[in-house]
Specification:
Layout: E1 3-8, E2 10-12, E3 15-21, E4 34-42, E5 45-52, E6 62-63, E7 65-69, E8 72-79, H1 81-84, E9 93-98, E10 103-107, H2 109-126, E11 131-136, H3 142-153, E12 158-165, H4 168-177, E13 187-190, E14 206-210, H5 218-224, H6 238-249, E15 253-258, H7 266-277, E16 280-288, E17 299-307, H8 349-361, E18 368-370, E19 392-395, E20 403-405, H9 408-415, H10 427-435, H11 440-466
Parallel strand pairs: 11-12, 11-14, 12-13, 14-15, 18-19
Antiparallel strand pairs: 1-9, 2-3, 3-8, 4-5, 4-6, 5-10, 7-8, 9-10, 15-17, 16-17, 19-20
Length: about 475
């Protein structure tokens, strides 16, 4: 018989200790027995081995005690500080294996993962090597490029070690329009995230995922007639795949984004709970594009999960973010020169009919009409090019019956996305890339703040140690 106990080094009256008791030990030890101990090196750390009998010098011996409850005597083992030594620290997770021949105590795999991913990041920062980034739900790469540019501005280089995107046109656009960020060893995965086999995962320092919001947003739940995000046919279980990648790729840092409503989902609760269980300090904030220099006031939930380490002076905090871009005074500053007789200007009579029909039903859907003097723009959706009843339209300056959609280039400027990212794309595809993307200045600012945060945690700490 074998007993496996996953527990934590706790604090007893005489210092740190590991406490075990109960019938699960009875097959291996009995009260009154003496156990001697030895420590050996393993490929993953150290192993404390307890065996029956006295040690040669009598030091650090462990006597099996007893606990009596309801007239039943059960063995009890307390491993104290003199036995644990310096290898097992207070609060550390450990794995105990109890057999009839021996008892072993080793550092738990979760603790080893924390140390490994931290040391991997520290080594790269100290040697000025680029960080490797894993990206899920890449889209056209707006989120990833913003983080990359922000990190670079903070003095930290990075590149995509792997990207996963199921839509061929988005993946092609990301590769064609920003080839400078990819390297020879980058892995391009054209697949649904759920179908990626993780038998041989690739370790990365940063894992990024723009979780699909089609089931979490109000519009998505209404359109799909679902009560909660997890009911969505294709996007409902995405969080499971995200957690699988976190576990397999052991990133030092995880960055997730979605609509603010995601915070109220069961998915969010599971994701944040598991990240904390795996040794990450989890911070969540809703970030507004207007506050970081964008005309579009899109709000996005952002999760930043950073491995907890002894090097950290303080956990990461969203208060470290500062704006690096100035917002235009009004919409007219980003508009193209579109001739007044251009066919882009249309009457959209079908929308007027639909608006009247929606009003009669009590629906609140209506177009946002702009004349160029507005200080901000509402959230532009992925299917903006369809010209639906809830889109943002520009009013013709001379004909109050005609309107037009923003061009893809104007859409870029509204979100302050580098126009390079939509080069050579059809207007429809470009609007899709931008409409499902993020506000570039928000995540540029996040990348910049995270770059300085990592520098303060590791590079400055190392400098102080050397001094």
């Amino acid at each position: 018989m074998l007993t496996i106990i996953n527990t934590t080094v706790g604090k007893g009256k005489t210092g740190k200790h590991i406490w075990m008791e109960g019938a699960k030990l009875a097959h291996a030890v009995e009260p009154g027995q003496i156990l001697s101990h030895s420590v050996s090196e393993t490929s993953t750390g150290v192993k404390l081995v307890l065996t029956r009998g006295n040690s040669d010098n009598g030091a650090g011996q462990v006597r099996v005690s007893k606990r009596t409850r309801n007239a039943v005597i059960k063995p009890l083992i307390e491993l104290r500080e003199d036995v644990l030594g310096d290898n097992f620290t207070l609060g550390m997770k450990v794995r105990v294996v109890v057999s009839s021949q021996y008892i072993t105590v080793e550092i738990h795999a979760q603790e080893l993962s924390k140390h490994e991913r931290t040391n991997r990041l520290r080594t790269k920062l100290e040697n000025k090597q680029p960080l490797q980034v894993g990206s899920l739900f890449l889209g056209g790469g707006v989120l990833d490029r913003a983080l990359h540019d922000g990190l670079q501005a903070a003095g930290i280089e990075s590149y995509p070690k792997f990207v996963v995107e199921r839509e061929s046109k988005y993946l092609d656009a990301a590769i064609a329009n920003q080839p400078e960020v990819f390297k020879e060893d980058s892995i391009l995965i054209h697949s649904s995230v759920e179908d990626v086999h993780l038998e041989k995962p690739v370790p990365v320092e940063v894992l990024v995922a723009g979780i699909p919001c089609t089931g979490a947003s109000k519009a998505g739940r209404s359109k799909n007639k679902i009560a909660k995000a997890e009911d969505h046919e294709s996007a409902g279980a995405c969080f499971v795949s995200v957690l699988s990648f976190v576990y397999a790729c052991a990133p030092y840092m995880v960055i997730l984004e979605c609509v603010p409503e995601y915070i109220n989902s069961a998915s969010y609760s599971v994701v944040s709970a598991m990240l904390r269980h795996w040794g990450y300090n989890v911070n969540t904030e809703v970030l507004d594009g207007n506050e970081f220099g964008s005309l579009e006031g899109r709000k996005r939930m952002c999760i930043v999960a950073v491995t907890e380490t002894s090097e950290q002076h303080q956990p990461f905090d969203f208060g470290l973010l500062t704006s690096h871009f100035a917002k235009e005074q009004c919409v007219s500053e980003i508009l193209d020169e579109v001739p007044l007789d251009s066919e882009r200007w249309r009457t959209y009579d079908y929308l007027l009919v639909k608006e009247d029909r929606d009003k009669a039903k009590g629906n609140g859907y209506s177009r946002d009409i702009y004349d160029g003097n507005e200080e901000k723009v509402t959230t532009i959706r992925r299917l903006y090019a369809k010209g639906g009843s809830c889109e943002q339209f520009l009013q013709h300056p001379e004909d109050d019956k005609k309107f037009r959609l923003f061009t893809a280039q104007e859409h870029c400027r509204i979100k302050k996305v580098p126009e390079q990212l939509i080069a050579n794309l059809a207007q429809t595809t470009a609007h899709e890339v931008l409409g499902q993307g993020v506000i570039y200045p928000v995540f540029y600012s996040l990348g910049f703040a995270l770059g300085h945060y990592m520098e303060n945690c590791f590079i400055e700490t190392q400098t102080k140690k050397v001094a």
